[in-house]
Amino acid sequence: MVERLVLRRKEFTLLQAYIYQHIGISLGDHKIYLVQARLAKRVKQLGLSSFGAYYDYLVADKKRGELEYLSSLISTNVTSFFREAKQWEFLKRELPSIIERSGGKLRIWSAACSSGEEPYSIAMFLMEHLPNYTQYDIKILATDVSSKVLKIAMNGLYSQKAIFSLNEVYLRKYFSTEIVEGEAFYRIRDAVKQRILFREFNLVTGDYSLFDAKALNIIFCRNVMIYFDKSTQSALVDRFYTILPKNGYLFIGSSEALTDMKKDFRSKSASIYQKA
């Protein structure tokens, strides 16, 4: 019988601090059992005898490969195509004025793209609602802290469950069908992929000097800040504010708000903000 690994409070405190420092996720003390459940299999895979030994392994890994693996285990990659329906309705109304202000050069950042549903939704939306889409200079940056989900995103192959709620028009126009081991899967067409650049990026520790000042028109950062504490949220919103131009938009999750952050963003609708 395999002995069950138990995450002791001292070990949890060490992992808790490490995760906050390197990933930015703030784990309350009540999350000890969640961390134990998510990491136990990995600890055994590495042939380690305890969570304390795993912490030592993390610290000793100078190439940060295990940190990347840890990020994918701790973060919750729940997403879907065209989630937050009211945001897409807003974007449809505002799209003509956004394009006019941008001079036809549109830059959008999907800041926690997970397995790709969000950036592909953005690209399909623009292709569907912008007449003569190809005449515009449009680029979508899609980043995530996890290389594991980025590989899924770049592959662009989705199960029937993943596309269940997708409009039939989008499915027909922007996907091709593939049979894998007797099951139908749906692959994003290259015409959608070609406007998206996927990159690994940590929102908390990443180098924001990589972004040209005021080059972005829209940032999507949805259902990410709920994992951060107030100071980390505030620092992140500050960075977003700096790299957005005047009138640029920030889209966040429906369960999030900038209410306590006192930034110069105007609330345009629930979970939609515009730089003043």
Automatic annotation (TrEMBL):
One Pfam family from the record: CheR
Catalysed reactions, semicolon-separated: L-glutamyl-[protein] + S-adenosyl-L-methionine = [protein]-L-glutamate 5-O-methyl ester + S-adenosyl-L-homocysteine
Molecular-function annotations in GO: protein-glutamate O-methyltransferase activity
GO biological process terms held by the UniProt record: methylation
Domain CheR-type methyltransferase, chain residue ranges per copy: 1-276
Keywords: Methyltransferase, S-adenosyl-L-methionine, Transferase
UniProt keyword annotation of S-adenosyl-L-methionine present: yes
Source lineage: Bacteria, Pseudomonadati, Campylobacterota, Epsilonproteobacteria, Campylobacterales
EC number(s) given by UniProt: 2.1.1.80
Name the record gives this protein: protein-glutamate O-methyltransferase
UniProt cross-references to SMART domains, sorted A to Z: MeTrc (SM00138)
